[in-house]
Structures are given as C-alpha cells and as structure tokens.
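User: Hi! I'm working on a homework problem where we have to compare a predicted structure to a textbook description. Could you give me the structure for the chain below?
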Amino acid sequence: MELKDKEKLEALKTNLKELQGEDSKKEEKFLKFLDILSEFLQDIFKVEDDEVSILITDKKEEILSFVKPDYLRGAGIIPMSSQDSFAVQSLITAKAKVVNHLKKKRPSSIFELVKNPDKPNYPVQKLMIVPLLLKGKKLGVIEIMKKAMSWNEAGPDFTEEDLKVLVDIVKEIATYFAFFKPEDYKPKLTEV
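Assistant: Happy to help. Predicted structure tokens:
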C-alpha cells in the first residue's frame, strides 16, 4: 500500500472512531458506515459506486445479502449453500480471490439483472473478493469489480498487489464492521 493510501486508511479509521461515538440509532450509524467505507474503497481502487459490493451475513450466518450498492439492498439473498457464488465460496473457505476473466468462469449472476437507477447496467468482467472474518465469525464479504460491456473495455486486470491491499484494508476495518453491523440484520426484500 502506498504512503498516500496508508494516510487515507488512517483518516478512514479516525472517521469510523468518530462515528462510533455519535449519538444516533444503530441502523443510521450502519448506513453511514457503509457510505464512508464504500467511498473509501472507490477512491483507493478507482472504481465507480456500483463497482463496490458489500454483503453481510444474517445472525445465523445462513445467508448473505447486499447492503452496498444501495440499489441492490433488498434485491435478494444468497444462501450459504449456494455452490456457484464467489461470495459464499470466499466466506466458507476464508480465502480472498482475484478473478480477471469472470464471464468465462461462472454463469451470469441474477443480481447483474437488477437495474441500476442511475446508470446503464454492464456485466461484471473482473472481480476481487475478500471475506470479512473476525474471531471465528463470518461477517460478510467485500467485492471490488470492474464492469464493462467486454473484458477489454474493463481496464487493467486486478493484480495480486491489489488483492493484498484489499485484504490489508479488510483486516484494519473488521472490528469496525463488527461494531456497526446490526446483530439481527434481515434484508427487506423488494420486488425488482
């Protein structure tokens, strides 16, 4: 991680400490935390807001649901029994992963069909995924992706160094994630 990124990470942690002390409802703090974290990841990896996905587990760690980007919140759930979900695989194996040729390696995700109200939908071409784990608890998953009409248009491949940076960030923010994550989170599913 470059020096400027380390400084940004320290600033992020300072912001999160301040947010912990704010006098507001837990759900409001959680949503604010997600916005702060998503904006930070967009800046570090130079991606758009719909190219940062944050998924969290339910209380029993049986399902994953999107909490970022906002338009996917409530769009559906992913059971931990899902065999073709990279998010589930990452969480179960506790391994981070880079996939730079996504379309060749998996069927299209149902969540890619959910319309983004702010911009055209493009398929995910490249993906980094890191599980959020803390003291044996499966908290969720962070995905950084590159979307485009084709693999060539998606820009440079993610590198092992990119993945290391994301893993380091996740390690630094895991305790904050655990603090802000609602214990009894249940997605409010909506029709799309």
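For your comparison, note the following. The beta strands are 52-57, 63-68, 77-79, 97-99, 124-134, 137-147. Residues 104-108 have pLDDT under 50 and may be disordered. Good luck with the assignment!
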